[in-house]
Design brief:
With 90 residues, the chain is mainly α. It folds into two domains: 1-34; 36-90, no CATH class. Helix content is 70%, strand content 7%. The protein is built from three helices and two strands. It has helices spanning 2-29, 51-73, 77-88, and strands at 39-41, 47-49. The chain has a two-stranded antiparallel sheet. Helix 2 packs antiparallel against helix 3 (77-88).
Length: 90
């Protein structure tokens, strides 16, 4: 049975990397518009760099990297994830 589970793991990894590649290619070619992603607008219509959006992007990337490293290490994810989620949402 380990062969079947290993096959499922490889299929999931291939799917995730393919999805990541598709999104990156579409962002680079302009099919997905990322302009203004980290900007906000005031009531007057002027644009500004949103520190809240930058912080949220950094927190998302850190959480994703931590979660993926735990998946790779096959450690107990739920205990660490619940601690991180409670720290982020407080």
């Amino acid at each position: 049975m380990p062969e079947v589970t290993q096959l499922i793991v490889w299929e999931a990894l291939i799917f995730l990397f393919a999805l990541f590649g598709i999104v990156v290619i579409q962002i680079l070619t302009g099919a997905i518009n990322a302009r203004g992603l980290l900007e906000g607008t005031t009531s007057g219509g002027t644009r500004f760099k949103s520190t809240g959006r930058v912080q949220l992007l950094i927190a998302t990337i850190v959480t994703a990297v931590q979660y993926l490293s735990q998946v790779v290490d096959n450690s107990k994810i739920s205990r660490h994830t619940s601690k991180l989620a409670s720290a982020v949402w407080q």
